[in-house]
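// run 5 | inverse folding | seed 20
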């Protein structure tokens, strides 16, 4: 009996440890195995309250995500009192990490009347308590687009204070060193000052572990210079940026088609040396039309059992129809490599292209 229990425990331990944790080394992310990690993600807030509690749905979605090479999802809201074991394991089994916002609908830091208090810390901490145990929890965000205007910079110290306190909370609880960062709106008048301010300081316990940006400037037939992505690189290289930086939302959809050329730049020679990938916005197609999959035709929100906005949010995900097919062709591109590091991100950009070419052309 004892040997059976020990064997079962060993199997369970193997299952839990099947995916490397992610950590920060200088200005890069690395896996436990020593490989540099590039975020190849999709924003995934399937339902408003918590998309990580329905394992049947998690399996359906993770299978399709895995088929296009996704290694990350971003989740904006969860219920820390719910059980997330099954969904987190499902995504781990698919090789997919979760980047999770700590705030809830009523605890986020606001730029108009910024504050950071014990109540907010406790609520943020409750989310951390619920998710720190999962090896595929890649990182936490302490805020999303808190600063959205020129004079919104008054809220920056509150964001930095939140990161400081959550890092202290993490360390006091003896959790693993899960990266803690911020997701910023792309406000030209605030960058690069904001990203520098949140990363600076002689004491690393008071600075972010990573910084990310929600950028929608690569639209239509654009390019590295025209889109402003070249400036994003300069903002990093001019100061020798000291923490990882990546795009936490990206994907301009007008004018059509959405051709994924921005991904070619992000994972190519222009940016891969200094940026750590991107999260495409978004998974489910809603009224904003950013989604890449749907769960059926929109229905009348007033009909019995209909979702509030009329967009079904469960079932088998199907690629959304789009007009003309994307132009991104990455099959012949050579992977960007550095000594001791293995980068397969080109393959992800290619998979996104093929996904649309096969399913979304109309």
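// decoded
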């Amino acid at each position: 009996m004892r040997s059976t229990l020990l064997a079962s425990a060993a199997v369970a331990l193997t299952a839990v440890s099947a995916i490397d944790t992610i950590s920060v080394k200088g200005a890069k992310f690395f896996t436990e195995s020593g490989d540099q990690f590039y975020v190849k993600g999709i924003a995934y807030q399937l339902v408003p309250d918590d998309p990580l509690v329905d394992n049947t749905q998690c399996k359906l979605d993770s299978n399709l995500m895995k088929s296009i090479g996704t290694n990350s999802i971003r989740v904006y809201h969860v219920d820390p009192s719910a059980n997330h074991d099954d969904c987190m394991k499902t995504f781990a089994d698919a090789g997919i990490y979760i980047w999770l916002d700590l705030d809830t609908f009523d605890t986020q830091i606001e730029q108009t009347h910024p504050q950071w208090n014990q109540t907010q810390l406790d609520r943020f901490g409750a989310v951390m308590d619920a998710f720190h145990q999962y090896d595929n929890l890649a990182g936490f965000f302490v805020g999303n687009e808190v600063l959205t205007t020129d004079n919104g910079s008054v809220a920056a110290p509150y964001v930095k204070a939140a990161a400081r306190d959550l890092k202290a909370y993490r360390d006091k609880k003896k959790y693993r060193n899960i990266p803690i960062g911020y997701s910023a709106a792309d406000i030209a008048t605030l960058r690069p000052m904001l990203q520098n301010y949140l990363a600076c300081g002689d004491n690393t316990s008071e600075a972010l572990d990573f910084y990310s940006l929600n950028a929608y400037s690569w639209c239509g037939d654009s390019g590295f210079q025209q889109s402003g992505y070249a400036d994003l690189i300069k903002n990093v290289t001019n100061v020798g940026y000291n923490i990882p930086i990546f795009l936490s939302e990206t994907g301009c959809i007008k004018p059509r088609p959405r051709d994924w050329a921005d991904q070619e730049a992000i994972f190519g020679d222009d940016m891969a040396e200094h940026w750590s990938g991107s999260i495409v916005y978004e998974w489910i197609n809603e009224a904003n039309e950013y989604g890449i999959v749907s769960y059926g035709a929109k229905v009348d929100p007033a009909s019995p059992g209909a979702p509030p906005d009329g967009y079904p949010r469960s079932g088998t995900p199907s690629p959304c129809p789009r007009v003309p097919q994307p132009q991104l062709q990455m099959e012949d591109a050579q992977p960007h490599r550095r000594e001791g590091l293995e980068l397969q991100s080109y393959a992800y950009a290619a998979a996104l292209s093929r996904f649309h070419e096969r399913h979304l052309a109309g």
